[in-house]
Each structure stands twice: as C-alpha cells, then as structure tokens.
Amino acid sequence: MNFETFRRRAEEILEAIPADYREGVDGLEVLRKTVLHPTLPEIYTLGECLSDFYPSDFGGAGEVRSRVVLYYGSFLELSRSRDDWDWEEELFETITHEVRHHLEHLALEDSLEETDYAEDQNFARREGEPFDPFFFQSGTRVAPSLYEVDGDVFLEIEVDQHELRAGEPIRASLFGRTFRLRPPSGLADVYFLRLPEDAVEIQGEGEAFVVVVRRKNALEWVRRMLSQRPLRVVEVEAELEPNG
C-alpha cells in the first residue's frame, strides 16, 4: 500500500468510528517516518495518541484534546518482514487502539497503559530479556488467578517451598482440565511452566503457562525488596504426571 492510499484509508477508518467515541479527537496525522520502539529492539511503533489535558476548575479530567498519529514507515517495514501482513487489519487495529487511549484519558483510566506494559514485558520474556515476573497481572483478567497477555495465558499458583522440596505434584485446573505437574528442579522465586501444545486449546498461536510463585511470608518479601536483588525466575517446559 503506497503512502497516499494508506493516508486515505486511515482517514476513512477514523471517520467510520461513531462520533461519540471520537469526541475530543482533533484529527489524524500520518507521517512517513519509521519509529522504533524506545526500549524493545526490532519492534516498531505504528501509532500514538498525543493528548493535551486542560483540567477543569471543578476537578477531574476537564477537557482532553487528542491527535492520532500514524507512522507509515513502521507499517511499511513490518509489511516487508511478515508474509501474513494485512494492511487493512493493522490500520483498523492501530487506529481503534489509539482512540481507546483517548477515551481512557477522558475517563482517567490507565488500563490500556497497563495492557501495553504487559505486552512489552511478555515480548521481553519471549526474547530472553529481563522482565517483570508479575507482568501478566497487568494483562486481561480472564478468571481468578488467570490472565491473558497478547494471546498467551497465565495461571498463577502459590506453592509452599517445603512442598516444592518434597517433590509434591503441583495441581492446576485450566479450561476444564486438571493437571498434575512435576515440581521444577532448583529453587527459584517464580517458575513459568509452559504447558504442552496439546494440553489445552488456545486460540491463535498463544501458549499456556502455569506460573508457580514460591510462597513467602511478608517479612521475606520485604527483605527481598530492600536488598534490591532481582527475583529468581525460571521458565521451563511443564512435565505432566502420567495421569495428569
């Protein structure tokens, strides 16, 4: 898709969003530039919502005016590297994503920022980079202790360290199935146990994890925080008991 077609389709997509949702969005700016993600290598920023805040005399958000900015060069770079690239789909997703940012600014909410953070940290995990071991809690809460981030599913379970040392199986229930997992070797604070592909059905190409958090008392966690030592995190393939 060339630049002029891209710009025209972006304007049409924005105009097709109901006016109530676009209130306060002053327009769309389409730039030719390519923008790399500020912290993650080889990741491109496709768009941004640039907002100005005018506080009300009565408190609250007051007036929020925003511009949606798209970076054509970033779209173009990704289109060259992905065989499944769909210009229309990516344009629609990016524009609605940025408009949602505007709506959350109006409502003084930050859930989308949390979602972005979770996705950034999940990417870092996939790439073997340091990451926040509890990033998934900023994702979409599907059920108690169950979260979804960018297609991956994370079930959080707390286990006593004595149970881990004793080799007791870890019991986990996910999507109607119950598993008995062999405890991982070594002693870490957080374990990401990746379930086999055929263990549960996940839409798309996402993976399912049982996140085992070694239970500590409050004093232990405070000491760990004060020491400024990073938590010990291990990611391994889950080993299911034969009758799991």
Structural category is alpha/beta
- Low-pLDDT segments, ≥5 res: none
Proportion of beta-strand residues: 25-35%
Main CATH class of the largest domain: Alpha Beta
Question: How many domains, as an integer?
Answer: 2
The level of helicity is 25-40%
Order of helices and strands: HHEEEHHHEEEHEEEEHE
Q: What spatial order of strands do you see in the largest sheet?
A: 4-5-6-10-9-11
First CA to last CA: what distance? 50 Å
CATH topology of the largest domain: Zincin-like
Q: Care to count the β-strands? A: 11
Notable characteristics:
244 residues; alpha/beta; Zincin-like; HSP40/DNAj peptide-binding domain; 6-stranded mixed beta sheet; 7 helices; 28% strand; elongated
Brief summary:
The protein is of the alpha/beta class and 244 residues long. Helices cover 33% and strands 28% of the residues. Helix 1 (3-16) crosses helix 4 (87-106).
Explain the overall architecture:
The protein has two domains: 3-109, Zincin-like (2-Layer Sandwich); 134-237, Sandwich (HSP40/DNAj peptide-binding domain). The chain has seven helices and eleven strands. The chain has helices at 3-16, 19-22, 72-81, 87-106, 111-126, 161-166, 218-227, and strands at 25-31, 47-54, 63-71, 140-143, 146-149, 152-160, 170-174, 177-181, 190-194, 208-215, 233-237. Helix 1 (3-16) packs across helix 4. It is elongated, with a radius of gyration of 22 Å. The termini are far apart.
